[in-house]
User: Which sequence fits this backbone?
């Protein structure tokens, strides 16, 4: 698959590096208006750099584009690539607004090209193993999902707030693990460091299958914390995204029955501390798996793991958190 990367910033450089190493990808160009800075990267990988997409399409003849420009430009750039007949992987969030995201989905369907969104944690080996174990019933009924994504302040991100940048990862993950649609039932948002957008958000979500989601995301923590826990009838799974570790804390009370004289609740199980298991994980860079998977979907005409509709759903929930948080703040004061 002949691929161009549009945008040579931090994420664009990661895509360029990984694509240059994948056997099924041929990196044929980099598109960035700052040709001097992009040229240094292009020289390293022996590929041409283009100042605009039209020139890249005419000269490099790509089949696929990775869109890694600032969020406010996702819609325009991804739309141009779709109209040119390219398969598109756009970094998350899919666009700046839900309407823009829906327009990209419709355009990709009309052009019969594959559209995917870069929710890269779906390809984290620990998450993949967690989902496999949940699907086979290791956890039983899911009670709640608790997600934390905390970071220092990223000075490079000025066009969106922490909800679109970080919360979008976690609401997508919650939808994926819960296996059902969700809605926001409570939220708080605050702006402490960022000059124009929220940098702290808390969200409470309710999913159609009864699971509850608790979201804790910010840009004001002086270290990176990336974890998610899923609690159900038979115990709790915990994933550390950064170290790609997966733990299972069993519920020793699951499946216990109690006689009429017991002081315990009259349920078919209770909750007691059990064994802790560290699950062996074969580590791999999630971005490499994401790009491999997208190239396969585009080549074979199959549905990508994270399609445009998934991206729109994650964006909608992320923006709903901000709206609810702002409304709660206004009502309080």
Assistant:
């Amino acid at each position: 698959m002949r691929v161009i990367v549009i945008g040579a910033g931090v994420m664009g450089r990661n895509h360029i590096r990984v694509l240059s190493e994948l056997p099924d990808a041929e990196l044929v160009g980099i598109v960035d208006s700052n040709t001097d800075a992009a040229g240094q990267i292009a020289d390293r990988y022996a590929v041409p750099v283009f100042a605009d997409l039209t020139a890249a399409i005419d000269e490099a003849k790509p089949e696929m584009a990775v869109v890694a420009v600032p969020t406010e430009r996702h819609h325009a750039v991804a739309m141009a690539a779709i109209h040119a007949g390219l398969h598109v992987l756009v970094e998350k969030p899919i666009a700046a607004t839900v309407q823009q995201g829906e327009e990209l989905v419709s355009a990709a369907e009309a052009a019969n090209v594959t559209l995917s969104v870069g929710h890269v944690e779906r390809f984290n080996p620990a998450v993949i193993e967690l989902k496999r174990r949940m699907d086979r019933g290791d956890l039983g009924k899911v009670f709640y999902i608790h997600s934390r994504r905390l970071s220092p302040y990223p000075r490079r991100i000025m066009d969106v707030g922490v909800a679109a940048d970080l919360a979008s990862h976690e609401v997508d993950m919650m939808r994926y693990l819960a296996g059902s649609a969700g809605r926001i039932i409570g939220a708080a948002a605050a702006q402490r460091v960022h000059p124009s957008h929220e940098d702290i958000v808390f969200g409470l979500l309710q999913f159609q299958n009864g699971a509850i989601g608790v979201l804790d995301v910010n840009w004001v923590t002086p270290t990176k914390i990336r974890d998610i826990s899923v609690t159900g009838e038979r115990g709790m799974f915990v994933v550390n995204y950064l170290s790609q570790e997966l733990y299972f804390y069993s519920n020793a009370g699951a499946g216990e029955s109690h006689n009429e004289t017991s002081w315990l609740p009259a349920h078919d199980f209770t909750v007691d501390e059990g064994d802790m298991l560290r699950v062996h994980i074969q580590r791999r860079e999630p971005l490499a798996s994401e790009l491999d998977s997208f190239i396969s979907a585009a080549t074979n005409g199959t549905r990508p793991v994270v399609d445009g509709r998934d991206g729109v759903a994650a964006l909608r929930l992320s923006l709903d958190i901000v709206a609810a948080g702002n409304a709660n703040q206004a009502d309080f004061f």
In short: The longest strand covers residues 142-150. Confidence is low (pLDDT under 50) at residues 257-264.
